[in-house]
Write a sequence for this structure.
């Protein structure tokens, strides 16, 4: 089938459809989701799109960082549907989970596509219980968490929070977020889930926040921690060595991208600065690979009456060494994109989907992998 099994038109149908999907398969019997035949689609109408030379000119790949090992990119099975603004992806049990986002002409999708790198194919997981974009995701011990998100285009956030049992192919509601937000960063550290930054209400303002809240899966309870210095959303975030790094992002809009790099020290409940991201950007992927933090993709520029000005879709691949606090550059993305799903499985960084132009006008099904192996 070209589209996933359960396309849900109304909230009532969504509940019924989700129930059907969650009983239809387990981790070992998930239905296949064949790749899209079209690499791009317009948000307006959800119809196939062919990139114009002007749109392709938005792509930039130059990095000021010193050169490191180049590595190489290669094509992988395209996503089942061109999509973006799912925010981020997560890896669990050897597969990559990409949740929610824009696609097929709508911004509040409940997609849950799962990539199996061994077979180089996509599978249909149980859909998110409600559709949203910019959903924060993270995973640990056979569970995937999906937190908050926007139900309108990059605005009107909610407090919904869910956990997905991979073996059972089932989502369950958990304690809601203390405050609504979308485009936040989620990361596991020491068995607890940290939710950091994002943007919140009122929808007309959609202001960035520095909130830092921690979820205890055993107690099903949220508590507050020291906020992120410099409230921002669309950041890159990873945990490493009992610390959390928050890198890049934006202050309210991509006009105000930042290169800020903060590290959270849990034993002191405080934040410190580290070496800044060489290319200031937001909507980029950030993963830990071979002991370094690799940042790829992103966007920048501004819109005037909906028309892009100084529009940039970044393809830079830059990596950070947490030992010596330095950055270097690698082979840029073959297809620059923002709002991508990025995750590490084995010795590859998988980067799926994302926006092909500044903003949410064009989605992509493009899926490429990076490796430093020869």
């Amino acid at each position: 089938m070209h589209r996933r099994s359960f396309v849900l038109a109304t909230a009532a149908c969504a509940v019924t459809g989700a129930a059907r999907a969650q009983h239809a398969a387990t981790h070992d019997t998930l239905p296949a989701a064949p790749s899209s035949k079209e690499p791009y689609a317009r948000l307006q109408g959800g119809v196939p799109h062919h990139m114009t030379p002007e749109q392709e000119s938005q792509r930039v790949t130059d990095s000021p960082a010193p050169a490191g090992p180049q590595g190489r990119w290669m094509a992988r099975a395209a996503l089942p549907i061109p999509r973006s603004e799912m925010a981020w992806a997560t890896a669990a049990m050897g597969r990559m989970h990409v949740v929610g986002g824009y696609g097929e002409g709508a911004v509040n999708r409940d997609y849950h596509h799962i990539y199996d790198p061994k077979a180089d194919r996509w599978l249909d997981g149980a859909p998110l219980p409600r559709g949203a974009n910019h959903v924060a995701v993270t995973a640990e011990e056979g569970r995937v968490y999906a937190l908050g998100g926007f139900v309108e285009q990059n605005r009107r956030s909610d407090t919904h929070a869910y956990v997905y049992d991979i073996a059972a192919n089932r989502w369950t509601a958990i304690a809601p977020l203390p405050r609504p937000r979308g485009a936040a960063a989620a990361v596991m550290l020491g068995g607890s889930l940290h939710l950091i930054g994002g943007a919140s209400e009122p929808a007309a303002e959609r202001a960035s926040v520095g909130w830092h809240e921690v979820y205890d899966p055993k107690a099903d309870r949220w508590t507050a921690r020291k906020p992120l210095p410099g409230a921002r959303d669309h950041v890159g975030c990873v945990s490493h060595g009992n610390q959390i790094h928050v890198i890049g992002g934006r202050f309210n809009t991509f006009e105000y991208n930042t290169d800020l790099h903060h590290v959270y020290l849990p034993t002191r409940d405080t934040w410190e600065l580290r070496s800044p991201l060489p290319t200031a950007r937001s909507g980029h992927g950030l993963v830990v690979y071979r002991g370094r933090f690799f940042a790829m993709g992103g966007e920048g520029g501004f819109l005037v009456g909906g028309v892009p000005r100084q529009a940039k879709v970044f393809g830079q691949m830059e990596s950070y060494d947490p030992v010596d606090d330095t950055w270097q550059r690698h082979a840029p993305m073959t297809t620059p994109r923002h709002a991508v799903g990025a995750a590490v499985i084995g010795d590859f960084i998988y980067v799926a989907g994302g926006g092909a132009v500044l903003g949410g006008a064009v989605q992509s099904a493009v899926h490429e992998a990076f490796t430093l192996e020869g």
Q: What stands out?
A: The two ends are 36 Å apart (CA to CA). The first strand starts at residue 40 and ends at 42.
